[in-house]
Amino acid sequence: MDLLDAHFVPAVDGVAYGLLLFVVAAGLSLAFGTAGVLNLSHGTLYAIGAYTGAELSDGTWGGLAVGLAAGTAAAAAAGAGLSAATIPLARRGHLAQALLTFGLALIGGNLLIEFFGADDLPVRVPEALDSSVTLLGHRYPAYRLCFILMAVLLAAFGTWVLTRTRVGAAVRASADDPQMLATTGHSPRAVHTGVLAAAGALAGAAGVLGAPIIGPGAGTADTVLMLSLVVVVLGGLRSLWMTLLAAIAVGEVQTLGVSLAPDLAPYLLFAAMAAVLILRSQFTEPATAGAHGGGDGGSDPVAWLRRRLSASFSGRRAATATAEKAVAEKAVADRREPVPSASGGPLRRLLSGGRDDGGLAARGRKAAPLLALLVLLIALPTLLDAYTLSLAGSALALGLLAISVAILTGYAGLPTLGQTAPFAVGAYATANLADAGWTAGPVQIVVAAIAAALFSLVTGPAVIRARGTTVLMITLAIGELASAAINQLKSLTGGADGLVGFPPTQALFGGEGMVEESEVYNYALAVAVISVVVTVLVLRSPAGKLLTGTRNAEARMRASGHPVGRYLLIAHIGAGALAGVGGSLMVTVQQYLSPADVGFEIAAFALLAAVIGGSTSVIGALLGAGLIVFTRDWVASSWPGHGPLLLGALFVAAVYLLPRGLAGLRLGSGPGGRGAAKADQLPPDHDSVPAGKVAP
Q1: Which InterPro entries match (predicted)?
Q2: Which end of the chain is more exposed for a tag (fewer CB within 10 A), N or C?
Q3: Angle at 22 between CA 477 and CA 690, to 5 degrees
């Protein structure tokens, strides 16, 4: 009883917190499961309601009512605007939506801070609720009890609308069969807009009512988004009651778990999220793989047996030829020439990494732009000041991370939001080596690559069996678990304070530590050039063709006897090692390391850089990283406080203006062109309810 008494209040707080998350997650689930929009700006919709309600709160019932109406309406309007923004991307898959909505979240968050200020706003509740009541012998805030009641009523009302009304029937029909819905006289586009407006209204109402619990502040949107994603993953998209149970469980972990097991609480949520996703991918893998070209037959044992017999007779002869045939067939399906062309000008050849084969003259032409770029990079120390040169070094480090993302997303078909985890492993390994006196650059690079590769080897099996949106969520969970570990393992990472003050890196054994910006930049450039050359050679080799064939025609590869899982695991390990090298370079360039350098935003930036360049373009990923660093640090320095706004605008512009990336800006056709453009069309994810397609 003493234990129960000690933790009674946190347990009730967990219920209130969980119900708040349920209302927010219900909107997120509605947007994704019905409208098919992976909305990473959903936390911003909550923040719109929270800021509006706090601004209009005056301690009266009228102020609460006005704030609730205004906050809900503002978030609903933002949701309707989101519908207009995402409809043109309906056929491009969830990756494009994720990048767009993340950019909109950056813009919205910056505008909210600009309008309401960066400090947390006080929220005044009616005097009758600004007190405490006795609950089973314990004093408890009256407002939180009132919120529990309001959240239950809101959940009941939403369930009734979805299951018992014609509006709810139209919403469900838009997910199951939008064409049939259109024959009944309902516009799928109007339903799409209404669903996202309703999702925004739920988030806004939760923001107003939850502001006294999770007050409006600079980090509110990110916190609410991450917790809501966990709730949606744990509860699934098929049952509001399962979502309710998952939300209460998350709320209890956030409150009761912190008081009972504070050291484990940061890991529990995302570990549970990853475990659920992994288990689902294990059980649904045959069907999922079959949907996008893989699997072992799923529900068709005759087809499975036929493929197995075919594989046993054919063996693995002509493995590379099979992969090349798969690439060629995919090329024809994309209405482009399967044979790489040397046409299209130097820009295409530069961005495609020089993959088109030809005679000596053609090889000379394709090498010219690469050499020109290399000459320009070598000349930068004579052209730039020290600060800008340090930004160029940071761009090279982020560029290696972006290339690792491009390998997984563009070549292996595994879109990732967690590649900062091996990046962080390489970075912290380098920082700790330097602190221990191991300052030789080659040693730091090799150790960082090995440590990151081992990390990717451990996490790879959890990733490579999943496809589509599930991969995004699993890698996101891995990245968040790595962030939690960084904050907990203070002896190795410095916690939230980070690491600083370690000796500078030596370019070679026995040399002096590099202190001049030009020395550090030249070292970073040399490491980046070697890494890029090795990466391009591997991707152009038969192994690279096998990987591309795996992404484009997994069913044919499996039927031919290829160990597809092994190929993907090797790609995951190689990409992790490359990310570790990038993390090592970042530490050398910056001479400090903080959790923000390896957080979720950096993962999103790396994914954007890969998409900007063209998802199968190595050089394009480097240029995309340079553009991001240029926007984030150099341009934003001339407009202080608006870096997120500029980056958000870059996200939005890249999604709309560069659907095929920079590699798509060419006259001819070839790898890195239209085929690369399709990287944001994720394979079907059978863990989610199919969403209706809305014609643009």
Answers
A1: ABC_transp_permease, LivM-like
A2: N
A3: 65
